[in-house]
Structure formats: structure tokens, C-alpha cells
């Protein structure tokens, strides 16, 4: 057990060090959040400040997601480019232990994304969140982080076996922002799309986060936290099969080194 | 004839190989999934911010901005990925005409940018009922061609940075999403602070998007000629600066041994 924890810690340590010197990480936690927060704040403040929470926090959630999931997942792709992916699959340490270390590192860096967006909102647009409930907000942010963590851990193996996974998921990024309600409520989506949103755990965590940041009538924040945990548990159960499939496929096909 | 064939083939290979969509799935992700999701995302955000009556403003703006998907991402990747894939020293060691080498990086991307905007407009018509019956369609088509060329001019300038910078595609990301803020795509340029308005009018797309919006509203060529002329001038300036930078950085990268730095 201690050897697994040590392996996860080393994976966390190395991936975090690499992220500190990676311009992509800065793009994701600093530049993208500021761009999306600027867009959101310019658009959402055109008719008053009633929806400003989506501008203040939306860019941060997008940056957090980008680092936690895309940057975290892409770190496996970078192993391929660096020629170390085969070693990762060959070592006795299970793949999920290494992935967990990487994702925890990306989550910590991803949380930084809220700093530039809150600063931009306050200094650039004089926008703040005066009605924020600190306790509920902190728990909702922790639940959102948990949901990102589970999704990232569950799906990262796809990046290892399918080289096109990053390309496709990159193309779907804005769809995820919309489906999870990162910058506007999912109730605005067409009716046929809303069931898809409700199957995604970040949708519920994001809803709880916004309800904690601004007064929302009839907000069942605790219920939304529980739904997030329930969906995350389902993802985790499904990921067991995915990991088995990926580890077997990687060895059978012998294509890990193909970049 | 043989030279023309070789040139055409090189244009195509630069496009499919260096933009990393040599597979249909990659093309589908960048040219179908991304455009549709961008249009839907910003329309829904705009509707949330200002109400459903303005949906077409956001849909049209984002459809037009899709040209930057090719003009910025495509062109920058087509220059910068030479380093990533290890072919930059071979390219710069060849006796090929530098101006042709430089301009050819944007050729297929300009055509693809035009195709991208038309795809965006089709999506806008189908999803948001954009009514083009009163629009001046030939003028709208001209606006689309112009913005595709001028955006590629900006892409050539930043693509040249790829000669000395390892992660030039990061610049593409910043420029692409920055254009969404400053070029009147999602809200009028007049809402920006004075400094950013000056930036907006020094960039391609701003005048072209304005001209295209007016063409959709039924304006004629005489009403938008000034905007299109300004747009073309801006695009030509960026392409010229890009070529100058390309030559400058080519020498710099050769002297500094930066061509293979990765």
C-alpha cells in the first residue's frame, strides 16, 4: 500500500514540476480564464449585474476544467511524445495510481484559475459576489473538484490508447462548457439536450456552486451535491472496465509508441 | 506543368499534415464539432445575457469568426508544426523561393476558412432561422472571402514566430480567443474601453464582421466599401509584416541553432 502511495506522490510531484514550467498550463489556468471571464463579464453586464456571478466564476470554472481534465489527460499524451508511455504501462505500479498522481497535481494548479478571474471582475468591472455563502461555496467547490477528479481519472486512459482522443475532446470543449452550465444555466439549452446535461456530474456541482454564490430561490444544494457523488460513483465503476480494457489493448496492439 | 503539380501537392500536404488533421476524425472535431459548439455556446450565453431577441447577433458573429479557425490556427500550425515534426531545418535548408514558401502556408487555409464560414452560416440558418432573403448575398460572399484572407494575414505574422518559439500554437490559442473579445463578434466594439477599441480597429475581422452584418441587413457595396477596403489594407499590412518577420527570424533561427530546439 505504501509503495502505491509513494508512486502516486512521485507522479504528482513530477507532473506538478513539469506543469510549473509548461506554457500550456499557464495558458489554461491564467489566459483562458481571463479571456472567458472577459467575454462573460462584457456580455453579462450589458443589462445590469443580476447575472454577474456567471461572469465572475464562469471563466474560473472553465480554466479549472481545462487544467484538470484536458491538461491532466494530455500529460499522458506527452508521455507518448517523450517516449516514456511504454515504461508507464510496463511497470508493476497500476496505471490508475500514476494517473491519480497526475490528476491531483492538475487539480491543484487548476484551482488557481479562479484568482485571475475574480481579480479581473473586481478591478476591471467592479463586480463581486456580496451574497456568497462561504461554507456552502467551499463545499460546492470541493464537490466540483471531486467531480472533475473522477472524470479525469476515469477517462484519462483513453488519451493513452487512442491518439485522436485529445483532438476530439478538444473539439468538444465548448460543448462541455455549455452542457455543464459553466457560464449559463443548462435550462437555457434546447429541451432535447438537457437530459445529456443531467447525466454529467459537473452540471450538478456547478449548479450548487452558483447557488452558493448568489441568492437562488428553491436551491437544493445538498441534493445537488449528492447527485454529483452518485454520478461520480457510476463513472468510477465504469472506469474499472475501461482501465482493464485499456491495459489489455495497450499490450495486445503494441501501438503505444506510435505518436 | 510538373512544377504546378508539385506546388499544388505541396499546398495540400502542408494543409493536411501540418494542421494535424490528416484523419477524417480530426477534421470532424475541428471543423464540425468545434464550430457548432462555439456557435451554440455563445448564442446561449448571449441569450442569457441580453434575451432571445439578440440570438442572431451572436450566431452571425461567431459564424464569421470561424474563419479564424483556419486563418489563425491553421496558418500558425502550418508554420509552427514544421519544428514540432522535425522538418524545419530541411525546409529552411532548401533553395525554395521564400515568398512562395511563405504565402503557400495560407493558401488552402484561406479556402478552408471560407468553407468554415459557410458551414457556420448554414448552422445559423438551420438552428436560429437566420433570414437571408433581404441580404445582399454576393456582397456577403465578398465579405467572407475578404475576412478569410485578412485573418490568414494575421496568422502568417504569428506563424513566423514559430521559427524561434517552441510552442507557437499557444499564440494561436490566445489570438483566436482574443478575437472573440475585441472584434465585435459577441458585443459591439463600442462597449470596449478606448485602448481596446484602438486594438480592435488595428486587427483584421473587426471591419469585415461589421461589413458582413450590414450586408446581411441588406446594405449595398457602396455602404460597406470603406470597411472592406480598410479590412484588406489591415490584412495586407499583417501579411507584409509577417513575411518580413519570417525572413528576419529565419536568419535568427539559423544563426542561433534554434531550428531543432524542441
Q: Can you walk through the features of this model?
A:
- The complex is a heterodimer of chains A (259) and B (262).
- With 259 residues, chain A is mostly helical.
- Chain A has one domain (2-253).
- In chain A, 77% of the residues lie in helices and 0% in strands.
- Chain A is built from twelve helices and no strands.
- Chain A has helices spanning 2-20, 23-44, 52-82, 85-90, 95-110, 114-125, 134-161, 165-171, 173-179, 194-198, 201-213, 221-253.
- In chain A, helix 7 packs antiparallel against helix 11, helix 7 (134-161) runs parallel beside helix 12 (221-253) and helix 11 runs antiparallel to helix 12 (221-253).
- Chain A is globular.
- The model of chain A has no long low-confidence stretch (mean pLDDT 89).
- Chain B is mainly α and 262 residues long.
- Chain B has one domain (2-256).
- Chain B is built from eleven helices and no strands.
- Chain B has helices spanning 2-18, 24-50, 55-65, 67-84, 88-93, 98-128, 137-160, 168-182, 194-201, 206-216, 221-256.
- In chain B, helix 1 packs across helix 4 and helix 7 (137-160) runs antiparallel to helix 10.
- Chain B is globular and about 55 Å long.
- The A-B interface holds A 23-24, 27, 31-32, 35-36, 38-40, 42-44, 46-47, 51, 54, 164, 167-168, 170-175, 177-178, 183-185, 188-189 and B 20-21, 23, 25-26, 28-30, 32-34, 36-38, 40-42, 44-51, 167, 170, 173-174, 177-178, 180-181, 186-187, 191-192.
Amino acid at each position: 500500500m505504501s509503495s502505491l502511495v509513494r508512486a502516486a506522490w512521485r507522479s504528482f510531484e513530477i507532473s506538478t514540476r513539469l506543469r510549473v514550467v509548461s506554457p500550456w498550463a499557464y495558458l489554461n489556468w491564467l489566459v483562458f480564464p481571463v479571456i472567458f471571464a472577459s467575454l462573460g463579464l462584457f456580455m453579462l453586464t450589458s443589462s445590469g449585474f443580476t447575472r454577474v456571478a456567471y461572469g465572475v466564476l464562469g471563466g474560473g470554472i472553465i480554466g479549472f476544467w481545462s487544467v484538470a481534465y484536458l491538461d491532466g489527460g494530455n500529460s499522458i499524451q506527452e508521455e507518448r511524445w517523450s517516449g516514456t508511455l511504454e515504461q508507464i504501462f510496463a511497470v508493476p505500479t497500476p496505471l490508475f495510481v500514476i494517473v491519480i498522481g497526475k490528476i491531483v497535481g492538475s487539480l491543484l494548479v487548476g484551482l488557481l484559475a479562479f484568482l485571475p478571474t475574480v481579480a479581473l471582475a473586481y478591478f476591471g468591472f467592479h463586480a463581486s459576489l456580496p451574497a456568497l455563502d462561504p461554507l456552502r461555496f467551499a463545499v460546492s467547490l470541493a464537490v466540483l473538484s471531486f467531480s472533475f477528479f473522477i472524470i479525469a481519472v476515469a477517462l484519462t486512459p483513453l488519451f493513452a490508447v487512442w491518439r485522436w482522443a485529445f483532438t476530439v475532446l478538444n473539439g468538444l470543449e465548448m460543448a462541455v462548457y455549455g452542457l455543464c452550465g459553466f457560464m449559463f444555466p443548462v435550462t437555457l439549452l434546447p429541451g432535447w439536450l438537457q437530459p445529456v446535461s443531467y447525466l454529467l456530474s459537473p452540471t450538478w456541482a456547478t449548479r450548487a456552486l452558483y447557488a452558493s454564490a448568489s441568492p437562488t430561490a428553491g436551491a437544493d444544494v445538498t441534493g445537488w451535491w449528492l447527485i454529483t457523488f452518485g454520478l461520480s460513483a457510476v463513472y468510477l465503476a465504469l472506469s474499472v472496465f475501461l482501465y482493464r480494457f485499456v491495459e489489455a489493448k495497450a499490450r495486445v496492439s503494441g501501438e503505444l509508441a506510435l505518436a | 506543368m510538373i512544377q504546378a503539380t508539385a506546388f499544388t501537392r505541396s499546398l495540400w500536404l502542408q494543409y493536411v499534415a501540418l494542421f494535424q488533421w490528416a484523419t477524417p476524425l480530426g477534421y470532424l472535431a475541428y471543423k464540425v464539432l468545434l464550430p457548432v459548439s462555439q456557435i451554440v455556446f455563445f448564442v446561449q450565453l448571449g441569450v442569457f445575457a441580453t434575451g432571445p431577441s439578440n440570438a442572431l447577433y451572436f450566431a452571425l458573429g461567431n459564424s464569421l469568426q470561424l474563419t479564424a479557425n483556419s486563418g489563425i490556427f491553421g496558418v500558425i500550425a502550418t508554420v509552427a508544426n514544421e519544428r514540432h515534426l522535425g522538418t524545419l531545418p530541411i525546409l529552411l535548408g532548401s533553395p525554395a523561393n521564400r515568398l512562395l514558401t511563405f504565402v503557400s502556408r495560407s493558401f488552402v487555409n484561406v479556402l478552408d476558412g471560407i468553407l468554415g464560414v459557410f458551414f457556420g452560416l448554414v448552422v445559423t440558418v438551420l438552428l436560429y432561422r437566420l433570414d437571408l432573403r433581404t441580404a445582399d448575398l454576393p456582397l456577403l460572399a465578398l465579405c467572407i472571402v475578404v475576412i478569410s484572407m485578412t485573418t490568414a494575414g494575421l496568422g502568417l505574422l504569428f506563424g513566423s514566430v514559430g521559427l524561434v518559439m517552441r510552442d507557437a500554437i499557444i499564440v494561436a490559442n490566445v489570438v483566436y480567443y482574443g478575437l472573440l473579445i475585441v472584434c465585435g463578434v459577441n458585443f459591439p466594439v463600442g462597449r470596449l474601453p478606448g485602448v481596446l477599441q484602438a486594438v480592435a480597429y488595428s486587427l483584421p475581422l473587426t471591419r469585415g464582421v461589421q461589413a458582413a452584418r450590414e450586408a446581411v441587413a441588406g446594405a449595398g457595396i457602396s455602404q460597406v466599401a470603406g470597411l472592406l477596403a480598410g479590412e484588406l489594407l489591415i490584412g495586407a499590412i499583417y501579411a507584409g509584416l509577417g513575411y518580413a518577420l519570417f525572413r528576419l527570424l529565419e536568419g535568427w533561427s539559423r544563426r542561433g541553432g534554434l531550428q531543432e530546439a524542441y
